[in-house]
Amino acid sequence: MRKTALLLFAVCWLPVAAFAGPAEEANAVVQRWSAAYSSNDPEAIAQVYTPDALLLGTVSPIVSESREAIIKYSTPTKGSGNKNTIGEHRTIVVDDNAVVVAGFYEFTRIQDGKPVPAPSRFTMLIVKRDGEWRIAHHHSSPHVQLKQ
Known about the structure:
There is one protein chain. The protein is an alpha+beta fold. The chain has one domain (21-142): Nuclear Transport Factor 2, Chain: A (Roll). Helix content is 32%, strand content 43%. A 6-stranded mixed beta sheet has the order 2-1-6-5-4-3, covered by helices on one side. A hairpin with a 2-residue loop joins strand 5 and strand 6 (132-142). It is globular, with a radius of gyration of 18 Å.
């Protein structure tokens, strides 16, 4: 019975693993970044980036260049309770080692103890280096809402 269950698991799981390509890997990095942001841990956020990454943060007047700069940019969110949810996005495979993901996400920032939504948009260049997929460039800005 146990062998049958293991065989069934392998038959069902292996095709999914075999077909995971650059687009799927990059989208997993975007989700990993969102989870790291929602953890409110600047070190965890920085680990999703390459050591030489560039970040144009949503509320930053400067370019943050390097993991250390990304930690500094992210430090005010430490323990804040802020969250991020990925929304509609598009994935463009440049080659086997580079993927661009662009779309919308929503930050929920805690201000005066209350959640405040902050719709934003993003573009990420996600690269594979030394077998690891990470963010090399990330641009984020407020999402301008249409007036009706």
